[in-house]
Design brief:
117 residues, binds zinc ion, two-stranded antiparallel sheet, single chain, mainly alpha
Length: 117
């Protein structure tokens, strides 16, 4: 798991989930048409945030961002995403023991040492 993507996925996904639940709660607790429209917009906004969060999450797992379409399943999609295998392969620099996640790097970005394949 690539930490920087994981953090971004939480920053977008968590508010997204909360907005979806908040919007659904609002929609069920009101009969006012204007509030109904507002709650639909809140749910949609939550969905978009969740979608962005899931794109970062799939990138963090080294997976195709198309997996973010599981956002259509809301919380169920999240559970499925959490279960898919992490494809990121981290290598440890033999010189400075820094962790290198990008497979395309042949040398350590920190100290320049050649990385083992
Ligand atoms: Zn190094």
């Amino acid at each position: 798991m690539i930490a920087k993507y994981n953090n971004k996925s939480l920053a977008y996904g968590l508010p997204g989930i909360l907005l979806q639940f908040g919007g659904k709660f609002l929609k069920e607790s009101t009969s006012d048409p204007a509030m109904n429209v507002a709650s639909s917009i809140i749910i949609l906004l939550g969905f978009v945030l969740l979608l962005i969060g899931m794109i970062y999450y799939t990138k963090g797992k080294g997976r195709n961002p198309a997996w973010c379409l599981l956002a259509f399943l809301s919380i169920i999609g999240l559970i499925i995403l959490a279960c898919i295998k992490d494809k990121t392969r981290k290598r440890i620099c033999p010189q400075c023991t820094d962790e290198v996640y990008d497979i395309s790097f042949e040398t350590c970005p920190k100290c320049g040492e050649f990385l083992p394949a």
